[in-house]
Amino acid sequence: MSDCLFCKIIAGEIPSKKLYEDDEFYSFFDINPQAPVHFLIIPKKHITSVMDMTEADASILGRMLYRAQILAKAEGLEEGGARFVFNCKADAGQTVWHIHLHVLGGRQFGWPPG
Ligand code: AMP
Ligand code: ZN
User: Fold this and answer.
1) pLDDT of residue 47
2) Helix, strand or coil for residue 84?
């Protein structure tokens, strides 16, 4: 999608600190980290949000979560754990309209979220 920030990052039109890339996914460190480790993983297919996914997207997102846990382990989060977050639409604070999984770790998180 031509006016999507994360599609532009995938295309290399906007710079990012890349963590991982394959045919299906792109992962990069968040520009405004909320924890000592904070990266995003996104599908190369433009899906707007969790609320917009189709049944056909379910397998993509399953593989994305699997890749996220491999990357979380590589970033040293296996022992302490991590928070895996999808912010979906306005009430949840979604600001970029290309589905993305946040992976945050390296500190203690509270519950419920604020
Ligand atoms: P959300 O609020 O769930 O939509 O999260 C969007 C995330 O994208 C935020 O945590 C931003 O800090 C992050 N972000 C926005 N622009 C960039 C960028 N150019 N590079 C890396 N992360 C970004
Ligand atoms: Zn996009």
Assistant:
1) 98
2) strand
Is the distance from the beta carbon of residue 57 to the nearest atom of ligand 1 less than 6 Å?
A: no
Ligand 1 centroid from CA 5, angstroms: 9
How far apart CA 103 and CA 85 sit, in angstroms, is 7
Domain ranges (residues) in the chain? 5-105
User: Is 102 an annotated catalytic residue?
Assistant: no
| pTM of the entire predicted model | 0.98
In contact, 27 and 71? CB cutoff 8 Å: yes
- Nearest atom in ligand 1 to 94's CA: 4
Domain 5-105 has CATH 1.10.238.10: no
